[in-house]
Amino acid sequence: ACIYIGGGTPTILSADQLRLLLGVISEHIDTSELLEFTVEAGRPDTITEEKLEVLKNHGVTRISVNPQSLSDAVLENIGRKHSVMDFFRAYGIAKESGIKNINVDLIVGLPGDNFTRFSRTLDRVCELEPSNITVHSFCVKKSSDFLRESSEIYKRSGSDAAKCVDYSQLKLRNEGYKPYYLYRQKNTVGNLENVGFSREGSEGLYNIFMMEEVQTIFAVGAGAVTKLVKPDGKGGTLIKRIFKPKYPYEYLRNLDREEEARAHSEEILSFFSDELKTE
Asked: CA angle 160-163-165, nearest 5°?
């Protein structure tokens, strides 16, 4: 089994809040038996020694520290609150924490970025020798100001983004990383893909299970999506998703957690009822 806490930046919580959250998990799950325990630390400006000590003490084995770019000008363009120096500070804390696997996210095609800046970013990140490096393509939401025709800061065609992706694949292969998962999103710069690279034996298992859709995933919290997976008896797969309300005020509106949990359990048992009968 694996645990993944993310879909945002859990380390925006205080150390005490993280201790409470992970303590509840530890009460119900033997984390020492997990194949992988991931917490998306993500934003460098949220990372402190105390928080990572809490994660390590509760069995977390994988975190992300994401600069997106090592250009302060590019970070300012996209509204990030951290600086390049914040990233190096946070990465140093992560390295010293003893948490086994560290992932670093980079984004190709960011507004104001170019091949020279991106290649320099990747080269500097490789010098840190993280166990995982994920190269994303900039994805633009439909409501984003970047899609305005008058915007000069962003070109949807991708400009030299494809050249950056090519460079990342050659550079990371030469540095001993192997691609282990790939996925595409709508409205990416140059219609490019997202690729996860890993050192041998450090692949992010949760990412693989998510992309392949071969594993049942139980999700908790606002915006969470439980995914139930089982064979259809004909050589294929049946998948059912159970959605939680996206916004916290909607999620918290239903205060009867016991009733909600019961309904959730009944829906899951109903999905797997045929398998249970045969067993």
From this structure: 115
